[in-house]
Amino acid sequence: MPQKPLGLAVKAVIVDDAGRSLLIRRSRANRNFVGQWEWPGGKSDPGEAFDVALKREVLEESGLQVEITGVAGALGYEMPAVHVVLLCLEARVFGGNLRLSEEHDEFAWVPFGEYPRMALVDNIRAFMLEYAAREGTKK
Amino acid sequence: MPQKPLGLAVKAVIVDDAGRSLLIRRSRANRNFVGQWEWPGGKSDPGEAFDVALKREVLEESGLQVEITGVAGALGYEMPAVHVVLLCLEARVFGGNLRLSEEHDEFAWVPFGEYPRMALVDNIRAFMLEYAAREGTKK
Fold this sequence. Notes:
homodimer; 18% helix
């Protein structure tokens, strides 16, 4: 990690009233992880606050307006030119209409108990499963 | 969380070659958690990147120059006027000399196995213990 620049990315675990969370599927417009499911989110811009970045990325990728309700956790992973620090935040919808960008071709509201059977993005799959297992047993 | 503004804070788990991590004890110059042990760190300034904030805060509080080596995790907690999102990063020393600011009055290099017997800061004690338990069994 030391040699590469660090980048901050954010993702939203958006949960509805039924306890299901929003997953979106990466389309062929992406270079990697095509066909795999992920939480909406993306890179923060230089100088951009993490919560502003989260709302912007979620709106771009899902059409939804969200507010942050908690912290899911954080992890790091390597990309070719950068080491990414990924901050995952819990959020809920307060406006907007679900509409995907070209980066995704499908969405699903998924109970945490069903995460193990989903093709989750390889790079944070372990984290998503761990979080889902923790949340799924909370009730 | 929705009503209050969000703030980003960062803390460093600084580990030495013997696998011990740096804890510093909060002095009476603080309004809360006096006498409790914590990882160095603090609030990021508006527009300041998280890694810049971490290096600045660690230098201010410990006199040490560190580089980030990994991600320990993240959690949220409430303060009177703000909801804090705390990003905890793993780091190692590459320069500087250990010297505390007036905010702390003692330091210790502590093996993760000894965390349970330390008076850790109340607000993130559970997280620190969980992390230490995970790290302590890695070898």
